[in-house]
Specification:
There is one protein chain. The protein contains 24 helices and 26 strands. The protein has about 700 residues and is an alpha+beta fold. The protein folds into 4 domains: about 160 residues, Beta-Lactamase, CATH 3.30.450; about 110 residues, 2-Layer Sandwich (Beta-Lactamase), CATH 3.30.450.20; about 160 residues, Reverse transcriptase/Diguanylate cyclase domain (Alpha-Beta Plaits, 2-Layer Sandwich); about 250 residues, EAL domain (TIM Barrel). The strands form 5 sheets. It has an 8-stranded mixed beta barrel with strand order 18-19-21-22-23-24-25-26, surrounded by 5 helices. The longest helix is centred in the middle third of the chain and has 23 residues. The protein is extended and about 120 Å long. The chain starts with 10 loop residues before the first helix and ends with a helix.
């Protein structure tokens, strides 16, 4: 909405332009609808009667009753006036009037509403042109300018007005523009508005503005400009294109109001809403908003340490010296912390004597060094009103994502660690738990060496047989990656695979597993043993990479027939079926087998399962381990469902004959587990296959 506040000075050139196109009448009404002034410029004797009427101080309904010949005119005026007020902007319309002779006259009308500072209606300025017979209407230009210059004097006192040609070259500015920009008219005319460009707005901002006005449309927005003396000011801007007969803009009128103070007030309101009144630091509200957004944007690769700092014995200061002194102490502490931390970390006042410091993407060692710096800041006393205060702090630390992936968990754990730190003594620092610290240290060590292991392909594959339960024959194997760390020994996949996923190493690692497994299977086949399928686990992260291209490339290079490769995907992928199903279908078109691993752990949407082009379901080992309880019902349900879907079932984690018998009675087709064989190196698989082949012969 354009808030014109007071009458807007559009300048002599603007008035001349308006009068060139709107030459029949100009009138003004106040905010209550009373006619204040009317001027007509026409040879039409019927319209000239308007000047002879006593309109001043009267409203349209009263005038309809008094002047019957113009009853329709006043009725239409009232309705279109109201529409202009509701639009709250420059409004253009056509109005049709029958004069007292019954002749239809058509007017092209522009109505400009003006509002008081409080938003209430002030005055309505109306420009009208009789377009019934344009060539017959001529206007006395001298009188037209004289009449409208009365408006210019009033409008020039309150508005910032500029006129540019179609290229944006300034052709006119009023005195208010010069006063705001600190440039003279001679310095502005012939230039573009780049002369007052503050650099605050993007190129896209102005590109969109020009796109709008070049289409002949009005543009409105707030712009931050830079004056000649280097000061900045804000203006609420409306740019109105003036178009030729072809509808092409040939010049632009910019009408602006100074809203610098308004913007300052809004910025202050935002500042106070997000900053602590005592210390000036960002407050708890800002902390929650900013950190929640950061955690959401950095779920995969971000690292964060949250330091919960509490001043020791601060309550004693408040209780003995009063809250006013306590506030001064808090202010002094925050100033010292902020001065030291502003380029290293984010600092917030959480409440009371509690502060939160956030370190992003730092190692544990860096966090520890940082806490030493903080403690050093408290080694010197705080001087307040000739008093020295010797303070100390306790710091509790939690880390993302290790200690939690949501802000509430991180704050809670850092707070708990802080209370443990208080029990340790002055300036103590406590990570969420000592065990956690050991785990982080181990993790960091694994992260450093895992990347090297991927580059050097320092892994091995073991293979666990998959057996036809009824014939006891090996019909497939699952390839399982193994990593022997040079100093930490054997690292379980459950520990290093998540690290690989978090650090972007899962793609090259999976490609190595896929290629090694396929090449090994091809070697077994060429050695003369009966062919079996080989299963490879595929991380959900691979679905965001070129998984299809990877599989195609490996099959081509190893020359393994696609039907001897089975890709095992996790059940969690079923949570995003619209993205996953097209990829699975394309993989299926390559001829490979697809299975869902660890099925039944709770992520599946059975409604979508029927649409997944899978060959088998692998029942999670947790259900097989607990067949004596309700897990038996779940297993039976999964097998029945798979039968109806015409997919096979592999039961993982079979370790006892009792489990095997139970599954056999349910017509479970395939099994895998230590009952048949533990995961073994490739040479042992060959021996098992040769032995099985010999028995069969």
């Amino acid at each position: 909405m354009i808030d014109f506040n007071t009458e807007i000075n559009v300048g002599k050139f603007l008035l001349m332009e308006i009068m060139e196109h709107l030459i029949d009448f100009i009138c003004m009404k106040d905010g209550e609808g009373n006619w204040v002034r009317i001027n007509t410029f026409t040879n039409n004797k019927d319209l000239q009667q308007l000047n002879e009427m006593h309109l001043s101080g009267k409203k349209d309904p009263e005038l309809e009753k008094r002047y019957h010949d113009f009853q329709c005119f006043f009725d239409i005026c009232r309705k279109s006036d109201e529409q202009a007020w509701l639009n709250a902007e420059v409004t253009k319309c056509e109005e049709q009037v029958y004069d007292y002779k019954g002749e239809l006259r058509i007017f092209d009308v522009i109505k400009v509403p003006f509002f008081h500072d409080d938003g209430s209606r002030n005055e309505l300025l109306v420009f009208g042109k009789d377009i019934t017979n344009e060539k017959k209407n001529e206007i006395d230009l001298a009188r037209k300018i004289k009449e409208l210059e009365d408006f210019k004097f009033a409008l020039d006192e309150s508005s910032i007005v500029a006129i540019t040609d179609y290229r944006g070259i300034i052709t006119y500015v009023n005195n208010t523009f010069c006063a705001m920009s600190k440039y003279s008219q001679s310095e502005l005319i012939g230039k573009t508005h780049r002369i007052v460009n503050s650099g605050y707005h993007t190129k896209e901002f102005f590109k969109e503005m020009w796109k709008t006005i070049r289409k002949g449309e009005i543009w409105k927005g707030n712009i931050k400009n830079k004056a000649k003396d280097g000061s900045f000011y804000w203006v609420k801007t409306t740019i109105i294109p003036f178009k030729d007969k072809k509808g092409i803009p040939y010049q632009y009128i910019s009408i602006r109001q100074d809203i610098t103070e308004q913007i300052k007030v809004e910025e202050q309101i935002r500042h106070y809403a997000n900053h602590d009144e005592v210390t000036g630091l960002r407050n708890r509200r800002y902390f929650h908003s900013e950190l929640s957004q950061w955690l959401n944007e950095n779920k995969k690769n971000g690292q964060l340490a949250l330091l919960f700092l509490d001043l020791n014995r601060f309550k004693y200061i408040n209780d003995t010296l009063g809250h006013s002194m306590g506030d001064q102490v808090l202010s002094a502490v925050s100033n010292r912390l902020f001065t030291h931390l502003q380029d290293k970390a984010d600092l917030y006042r959480f409440g009371g004597d509690e502060f939160i410091i956030v370190l992003k993407n730092c190692s544990i060692e860096e966090v520890k060094e940082f806490t030493k710096e903080i403690n050093f800041l408290f080694s010197d006393p705080f001087q307040i009103n000739n008093e020295r205060f010797y303070l100390s702090a306790s710091i509790g630390i939690s880390t993302f994502p290790k200690d939690g992936e949501d802000l509430e968990s991180l704050v809670k754990k850092a707070d708990s660690a802080m209370y443990l730190a208080k029990n340790k003594g002055i300036n103590a620092v406590q990570f969420y738990s000592s065990k956690m610290f050991e785990n982080i240290t181990r993790t960091m060590k694994l992260e450093r060496t895992l990347r090297q292991a991927v580059e050097e392909k320092a892994f091995t594959l073991h293979y666990q047989p998959q057996v036809d339960i009824h014939s006891d024959k090996i019909i497939g194997v699952e390839a399982l990656i193994r990593w022997e760390h040079p100093t930490l020994g054997n690292i379980p996949p459950s520990e290093f695979i998540p690290l690989a996923e978090d650090n972007g190493l899962i793609t090259p690692m999976t490609e190595w597993v896929l290629e090694t497994a396929c090449r090994q299977n091809k070697t077994w086949q060429e050695s003369g043993v009966s062919p079996v399928r080989i299963g490879v686990n595929i991380s959900p992260y691979l679905f965001r990479e070129d998984l299809i291209g990877m599989v195609k490339r490996v099959l081509h290079e190893t020359k393994l027939q696609p039907d001897y490769l089975e890709l095992e995907i996790t059940e969690s992928l079923m949570q995003d079926p619209e993205y996953t199903i097209p990829i699975l279908k394309e993989l299926k078109s390559l001829g490979v087998r697809l299975s869902i691993d660890d099925f039944g752990t709770g992520y599946s949407s059975l409604a979508y399962l029927v649409h997944f082009p899978i060959d088998s379901l692998k029942i999670d080992r947790s259900f097989i381990e607990d067949l004596k309880n309700e897990s038996a019902v779940i297993v039976k349900t999964i097998i029945n469902m798979a039968t109806h879907l015409d997919v096979s079932v592999i039961a993982e984690g079979i370790e006892t004959e009792e489990q095997l018998d139970f599954l056999s009675n349910l017509n479970c087709a395939e099994g895998q587990g230590y009952f048949f064989s533990r995961p073994v190196p490739s040479n042992e698989i060959v021996n098992l296959l040769i032995k099985q082949q010999a028995i069969g012969e």
